[in-house]
């Protein structure tokens, strides 16, 4: 049975996000929806992965990121964005928007963008990696924006936790 491209992208993106969740659960992090945590922060421990984390976009609208890692033990706060592109599509065109949101709108100084699926245009992936590496459009905030695929992310997590 053929599934529409949007359904494939959504289910594959969910699988990518589940990989992130299982990686952090294996490292002892508690996974909590941001809206629950925000209402009762004292109820939760210091090693958290918050899901569906809001921020105000460069357009002034409410937007959401998949995850925010908060660790008292490692003194870290890292926003994590997941993008899956299995076949050519419009997500390529969203990468500059995502990058500018990282630079201008997301409050955290460390941001990880996990990009996988093999369907990105070579130029799009090259652009965002080069932009992050050279800190394009960054003035004084000089954020650490890392671009990884899922294997690189899992290796990073294994090396850091």
Task: Describe the protein in words.
This protein is of the alpha/beta class and 161 residues long. It has helices at 5-26, 34-39, 91-104, 122-134, 150-160, and strands at residues 30-33, 47-56, 62-71, 76-84, 110-116, 144-148. It has a six-stranded mixed β-sheet with strand order 1-2-3-4-5-6, sandwiched between helices. The chain is globular, with a radius of gyration of 16 Å. Mean pLDDT is 91; it is low at 5-11. Residues 9-161 form the PD-(D/E)XK nuclease domain. It comes from Caulerpa manorensis. Keywords: Chloroplast, Plastid. This is PD-(D/E)XK nuclease domain-containing protein.
Give a nutshell description of this structure.
Keywords: Chloroplast, Plastid. The protein is of the alpha/beta class and 161 residues long.
């Amino acid at each position: 049975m053929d599934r529409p491209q949007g359904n494939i992208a959504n289910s594959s993106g969910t699988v990518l996000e589940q990989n992130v969740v299982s990686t952090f659960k294996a490292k002892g992090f508690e996974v909590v929806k941001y809206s629950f945590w925000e209402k009762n922060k004292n109820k939760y421990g210091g090693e958290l992965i918050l899901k569906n984390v809001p921020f105000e976009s460069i357009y002034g609208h409410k937007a959401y990121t998949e995850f925010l890692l908060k660790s008292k033990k490692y003194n870290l706060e890292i926003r994590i964005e997941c993008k899956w592109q299995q076949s050519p599509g419009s997500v390529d065109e969203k990468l500059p928007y995502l990058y500018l949101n990282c630079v201008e709108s997301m409050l955290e100084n460390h941001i990880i963008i996990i990009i996988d699926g093999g369907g990105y245009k070579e130029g799009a992936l090259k652009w965002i990696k080069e932009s992050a590496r050279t800190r394009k459009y960054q003035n004084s905030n000089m954020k650490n924006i890392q671009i990884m695929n899922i294997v690189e992310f899992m290796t990073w997590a294994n090396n850091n936790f």
